[in-house]
Design brief:
The protein is mostly helical and 113 residues long. It has a domain of 74 residues. 61% of the residues lie in helices and 0% in strands. It is built from three helices and no strands. Helix 2 runs antiparallel to helix 3. The longest helix is centred in the middle third of the chain and has 38 residues. The radius of gyration is 27 Å and the shape is flat.
């Protein structure tokens, strides 16, 4: 017989799950903490609603940018993994170490006297 979870247990599991997921995205976690700082008025400088609204909008915009950036990086890594599974010989794009090609003939700028 299985027992149903209480609301507290469900919330506790949800919080743990959220913490685990956010730990994989530290930049997103920082943005969410910044939004919470605005909500809690941690700096003590948000006395007017219009200023608070402006800061909330700014933080939500930053969260959106960070979320999309994290999404793009995740998709990129998935595609690389998929590509490498189909074509194991594919190498990573590496920066060339070459400093150029060697001169084939002596420079003509020196005058022969």
């Amino acid at each position: 017989m299985t027992r149903s979870l209480s609301n507290t247990e469900v919330k506790s599991r949800a919080v743990v799950g959220l913490e685990e997921r956010l730990s994989a995205h530290p930049q997103l976690l920082e943005r969410i903490e910044a939004l919470l700082n605005v909500v809690e008025n941690s700096a003590g400088d948000l006395e007017q609603a219009d200023l608070a609204e402006q800061r909330v909008i700014e933080e939500v915009r930053h969260i959106g940018q960070q979320a999309l950036s994290s999404w793009a990086e995740t998709q990129h890594q998935k595609q690389l993994k998929l590509l490498r599974s189909y074509h194991p010989q594919v190498r990573k794009h590496l920066k060339k170490n070459s400093t150029g090609t060697a001169a084939l003939e002596p420079s003509r700028s020196k005058s022969s006297s």
